[in-house]
């Protein structure tokens, strides 16, 4: 398996066609997986916003006040409002906002970025990242680049473990996970492992060669990786009833 | 970056020298990262066990009873005892056991494996996986294979997201994470990302080419990946006071 960044992409602007930008710079082969950082997908889709776009509700004002009290740092209630607008559920209010985005991804601040946005205050995540992935995939297909899977990636932290890692937030042209249930080990025992989240692992692999700084390369080609002939599934975000930690957080409040 | 499995490893037995097994089969270069599945590290270190090794405490009996009641499946209290013996804290008792191992890794059943163990009931995780990684690293060095980092990997599930992915549980010859704090984006803004858990991302990348079944290849060489000149840190497992989800789980009980 080989991960190679696509070099010399220009700064992406609203209306840019990512499939075209990539097709002009990378030689893609059938079976390749293309990972695309959500930042450039959002930029192409014009998902920038300004604080002035967010009239503040009582809830956002309360949240911002509590965050200020807990962290001792100034918090703009319009940022809290932007996060609420992008979210279907707030899981943690303080000491930071952890929410579920409307497409099911649980991450701090609904994934809204305050860096990476020239001329605007905020960069929102793509509205429906799997649809974004599908648009890029079919854009490549139209240019004769067939059988390329596309993953839209984000980076975020997680419980229990320090630091951030790459994750998938949208995908097209492949299943999200690979199902090993019923497979046997060398000794003929059924495997302990069940479902492998391959899109997240591909996003993590790509993030190792992406870089975050001024010389970041937001698109990576993964070659010579095969899904294999196991069953696939498109579950990536846990169902509510299957997520004990969500349940625990719903019944918890940060102790100030 | 290239991930290549090491082929033709034999079934690993207690006392086997993993550095020797790998050195005989892979041509390693300075700067390579070697990922090694914890299963074969445990086998080499003789970390097998049998149910008979675990006289059952009242606590283990209680936990097994509750698990039976919740799941409707038979649970061996000796398995619960083995998990307790390997753990420093129980975070979830039901509907499954989520614990922190004595070396800081939070995962179901203290990572104890009931498949993958010929002639025994259980395969425990290595006692101190970073020390295991260091032994393999220095074993390679003795054979003239210098400047190879080693990561001991596990696969496990996570909150919020469905499926399992590869994670690091021990490492040597490189830092666990890469610190981007203070770096600037293209527009000169400070980055939103902070600390990147590179050992976890390497473990995930490797897991894509490892395979889980009878033809699994537990060792992978990652080549042409560079840590770069950013600061590193060896924090991987969150400190208790930094882990809100652990706090929420401590105050939560599964609603039967």
TrEMBL record, chains A, B:
Q: Which Gene3D superfamilies match?
A: CofE-like, CofE-like domain
Q: Which residues form the Coenzyme F420:L-glutamate ligase-like domain?
A: 9-224
Catalytic class of the enzyme: ligase
Residues engaged in binding a divalent metal cation 2: 155, 212
Sorted alphabetically, the keyword list is: GTP-binding, Ligase, Magnesium, Manganese, Metal-binding, Nucleotide-binding, Potassium
| Residues the record lists as binding a divalent metal cation 1 | 113, 154
Name the residues that bind GTP.
Answer: 9-12, 38-39, 43, 116, 210-217
Explain how, and how many, cofactor molecules are bound.
Answer: Binds 2 divalent metal cations per subunit. The ions could be magnesium and/or manganese. Monovalent cation. The ion could be potassium.
The protein's matches in PANTHER family, at most eight in alphabetical order, are given as: COENZYME F420:L-GLUTAMATE LIGASE, PTHR47917
Assembly notes = Homodimer.
Tell me the gene name: cofE
Enzyme Commission number = 6.3.2.31, 6.3.2.34
Q: Which Pfam family would be a valid example here?
A: F420_ligase
According to UniProt, the reaction catalysed is: oxidized coenzyme F420-0 + GTP + L-glutamate = oxidized coenzyme F420-1 + GDP + phosphate + H(+); oxidized coenzyme F420-1 + GTP + L-glutamate = oxidized coenzyme F420-2 + GDP + phosphate + H(+)
Organism lineage string: Archaea, Methanobacteriati, Methanobacteriota, Stenosarchaea group, Halobacteria
Q: Cofactor(s) for this protein?
A: Mg(2+); Mn(2+); K(+)
| Function in brief | Catalyzes the GTP-dependent successive addition of two or more gamma-linked L-glutamates to the L-lactyl phosphodiester of 7,8-didemethyl-8-hydroxy-5-deazariboflavin (F420-0) to form coenzyme F420-0-glutamyl-glutamate (F420-2) or polyglutamated F420 derivatives.
**What family does the entry list?**
Belongs to the CofE family.
Q: Which pathway does the database say it acts in?
A: Cofactor biosynthesis; coenzyme F420 biosynthesis
An example GO biological process term is: F420-0 metabolic process
What does the record give under GO molecular function? coenzyme F420-0:L-glutamate ligase activity; coenzyme F420-1:gamma-L-glutamate ligase activity; GTP binding; metal ion binding
Tell me the superkingdom of the source.
Archaea
Protein name according to UniProt: Coenzyme F420:L-glutamate ligase
